[in-house]
Amino acid sequence: MQAGDLDIEEALRRCAGGDDAALRAIYEREAPRMIGVAQRIVRRRALAEEVVQDSFVQIWRRAASFDAARGAGRTWIYAIVRHRAISILRNESRLELDADGDAAAAAAEENADDVVTKLSDSSSLRRCLEHLEERARKLIVLTYVHGLSHAELAAREGVPLGTVKSWIRRGALALRECLG
């Protein structure tokens, strides 16, 4: 299926059947426009790209729920983008840290390396934490020791939530591999 002669409704039916080439065709044809729509809502390019990525995951997972009798396929996918963008904006506005939250998080960050140094020199956890990239080590300590949520870290770091989740996940996988 080529993006130039794309029938969105047919592509969605094929996605529902597990055809990833159909999803790729929708992406190639619509992603630039979808990023534009998302960016008008969220006002940041990186966040708009995250919205579109999340939207394509939803399109893939929910393609079977598309009903052409209820509307056009293009309308359906852009509704997903719009709803996802609004949801992300709503979540971000709830997660803005106040001055006290910033001070507590800053204190926690200063102590992230202290947590690692407090571990026994012979500890395999310490050895593995020290081999992690500094950013991953800091985020893992802030999450698992100081109890900050991924959303709080995203607001603090000024990056999209998905980025923080990816960094923490990669760090945790590296830790698991090192400890295993």
What tags apply to this protein structure?
single chain, 180 residues, mainly alpha, Rna Polymerase Sigma Factor, Chain: A, Arc Repressor Mutant, subunit A, 2 domains, 10 helices, elongated, transcription, RNA_pol_sigma_r3/r4-like, RNA_pol_sigma_r2, RNA_pol_sigma70_r2, transcription regulation
Describe this structure in words.
The mean pLDDT is 81. The chain folds into 2 domains: 8-94, Rna Polymerase Sigma Factor, Chain: A (Orthogonal Bundle); 99-179, Arc Repressor Mutant, subunit A. With 180 residues, the protein is mainly alpha-helical. The chain has 10 helices and no strands.
CATH topology of the largest domain: Rna Polymerase Sigma Factor, Chain: A
Arithmetic mean of pLDDT: 81
The total domain count is 2
The structural class is: mainly alpha
**Low-pLDDT ranges:** none
The SSE order reads: HHHHHHHHHH
Count of DSSP-assigned helices: 10
Family: Belongs to the sigma-70 factor family. ECF subfamily.
GO biological process, one term: DNA-templated transcription initiation
Protein name: RNA polymerase sigma factor
Pfam families: Sigma70_r2, Sigma70_r4_2
Task: Reconstruct the topology from this structure.
Elements: H1 8-16, H2 20-42, H3 45-62, H4 73-94, H5 99-110, H6 112-118, H7 124-131, H8 134-144, H9 150-157, H10 161-179
Domain RNA polymerase sigma factor 70 region 4 type: 124-173
InterPro entries: RNA_pol_sigma-70-like, RNA_pol_sigma-70_dom, RNA_pol_sigma70_ECF_CS, RNA_pol_sigma70_r2, RNA_pol_sigma70_r4_t2, RNA_pol_sigma_r2, RNA_pol_sigma_r3/r4-like, WH-like_DNA-bd_sf
Protein name: RNA polymerase sigma factor
